[in-house]
Design a protein that fits this description.
P-loop_NTPase; Rossmann fold; ATP-binding protein; alpha/beta; five-stranded antiparallel beta sheet; five-stranded parallel beta sheet; 20 helices; single chain
């Protein structure tokens, strides 16, 4: 056993840095390592708090990449300008309009350069006047930030060679995501720059759907799936770091009830440590959570987000504004009425359509196009409402509505369905209609 002393907060729970009990997963880590050697862009996707960012941090050094954290207000020009800033440019908007109609930007960068000889103004660190280092400011470049060719040219001008990470890509407006999917093909064909795109969704080919030309040009890595042995390994490593052993019964119930959420496992283990007075490595080793209810701790962990989830339901039900059909309010009904198994697998379009034909005021006359359009807007609605992290996402290729926040899934199955129906302001009898449908099936 190591003699080092670690804080419980640095081992379990959510940390800014890599958790000390980071576990590699063959289907994720090995695939990422292999993908980094290919000449392709990478897309790391999965549910919220399932380790997407950690896997990138684990395999790349800080000086090997730049990060642009995406905003729900950015257009393509703002995204490209942020990339240039992170690459080292100072960006200033000009009054000149590009052919696209957008304002151009002026970009300049400071580079460290080695200069030979004496008498160089601003020289630093030279020895004997033979080799001197100075900061050189490049001549300002006038660029159209909406033109991917200008962005590529600017990055080449400063000899940029790092990976470009786009975190929270799912928060970008859908139109910006589509525009960037088009630009990504140009980055692949006209440069050696490689992007690592991180997003909350469960759709393997999200970017290919936006731009079919990306097929064969990107590698997708599903970071969502955690196998039970991998969750067990995370607990084992945490126990080793902290000099503790979790009670076998507690551990077993936790693994059976966490819905394969590494976040729930990490946070529940941390809360168990705190309840047992374990704040750092123990000497000698001691048992933890003996007689503790794992389900009770999981509920405490999830209930901390109860207000956020309640607000999500009421705000989502309101949709983009008052409409006759109130589609987003009614889309929540089949979600609330679904079985746990169905929620884990994702709700198929045909199930949602059938349920709405029973509960929606329009009944069977409800237009299928209205249902499809509403489902396609699920992510955009949450982005507009500032929902962080996203709770729901619609997979258009598989026609499936997914819960992409596993804490919400656990919270949802713990709630009284009648209370939830009342919360979104629909009649109580809708639950009976859904029950009747299940009996017929």
């Amino acid at each position: 056993m190591s003699k080092e002393v670690f804080r419980a907060n640095d081992v379990f729970g959510i940390t800014r840095d890599l958790p000390l009990n980071y576990v590699t997963r063959p289907a994720v880590d090995d695939e990422l390592v292999a993908a980094l050697t290919r000449d392709q862009h990478l897309v790391i996707y999965g549910s919220s708090k399932q380790g997407k960012t950690s896997v990138r941090k684990y395999h790349l050094k800080d000086d090997e990449y730049i990060v642009a954290t995406c905003s729900n207000r950015w257009n393509l020009g703002q995204l490209n300008s942020t990339i240039l800033k992170q690459a080292g440019y100072t960006v200033v908007q000009t009054e000149t309009r590009a052919a696209s109609g957008h304002y151009k930007i002026q970009a300049s960068a400071k580079l460290s350069a080695k200069l030979f000889g004496k008498g160089v103004e601003g020289q630093l660190g030279g020895e004997g006047g033979r080799e001197n280092t100075t900061e050189v400011t490049t001549a300002p470049l006038e660029l159209d930030p909406f033109d991917v060719n200008d962005v590529i040219w600017a990055l080449k001008e400063i000899g940029f060679e790092k990976w470009i990470v786009l975190e929270d890509f799912h928060y970008l407006p859908e139109e910006t995501q589509k525009d960037f999917a088009v630009a990504l093909k140009a980055f692949h064909e006209s440069s050696n720059f490689t992007f690592i795109i991180v997003g909350v969704w469960l759709q393997e080919n999200r970017l290919v759907q936006f731009n079919g030309d990306l097929s064969g040009r990107i590698t997708t890595i599903n970071a969502d799936k955690w196998l039970r042995p991998e969750l067990e390994a995370a607990i084992d490593l945490g126990e080793e770091k902290l000099g503790i052993t979790f009670d076998a019964a507690f551990r077993n119930v936790l693994l059976n009830s966490c819905y394969d959420s590494i976040y729930v496992v990490q946070e529940s283990c941390l809360q168990a440590c705190i309840k047992n007075g374990v704040h750092e490595t123990q000497r000698p080793t001691r048992s933890v959570a003996v007689g503790e209810s794992a389900n009770g701790i999981i509920k405490e962990v999830v209930d901390k987000q109860s207000a956020r989830f309640s607000d999500f339901l009421t705000n989502f039900a309101a949709g983009f504004g008052q409409t006759d059909l109130e589609m987003y309010r009614w889309l929540l009904v089949p979600l609330i009425g679904a079985s746990t198994e169905a929620l884990e697998d994702g709700l198929q379009y045909r199930h949602i359509r059938r349920a709405l034909s029973r509960v929606h005021p329009r009944g069977s006359s409800l237009n299928a196009g209205n249902v499809t359009q509403a489902l396609k807007g699920v992510a955009s609605l949450q982005v507009q409402q500032g929902v962080k992290p996203l709770v729901l996402d619609y997979d258009q290729s598989l026609k499936r509505l997914n819960i992409v926040d596993r804490s919400f899934l656990i919270w949802l199955v713990q709630q009284d369905k009648e209370d939830l129906v009342d919360m979104i302001d629909v009649p109580m009898n809708v639950l009976q209609s859904l029950d009747a449908e299940e009996e017929e099936e």
